[in-house]
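Example record

The entry below shows one chain as it appears in the dataset: sequence first, then structure tokens.
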Amino acid sequence: TTKGVSGNLGAGELQTAALALEAGIQGGAAGDCEALLTGFSTALSAVLDGIGQLDEGTPPPVDIPAERVDMDTAEVKEFVDRLSGLLRDADMESAEHLGRVRTVFGAEAATTLEALVSKYDFEGALATLTALTKEHGFLSEA
């Protein structure tokens, strides 16, 4: 059932809407069913849109700074080494560190790396990170 599957997916709003629609249909209140069906349809559309973004490889929104920030060289090298290791291992945990790329290398670099990682192109992302590291004067073993 929709309410069961939506619960398994963690789509709580859809699950609640499906449960309410089922109860409305069983209760026989035809006037209420239209409003309940509209609520169900809205919740279903939101879930399908989210699934569609997964198919397109669109990364989830991340709350990250908009601009590059000057950072301590040792701190940057440590960050680059950590991210390089994750990319080398094709580890999706690397996606959790991409927000910091924006503060180190700028928005354009972050967007490029986010796109590569979202497509599971870890080799391309590592090559890009290595080039950025050299371009910005941070020599690393990346």
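Notes for this example: The helical segments are 2-9, 12-27, 30-56, 73-88, 98-105, 107-118, 122-135. Residues 62-67 have pLDDT under 50 and may be disordered.
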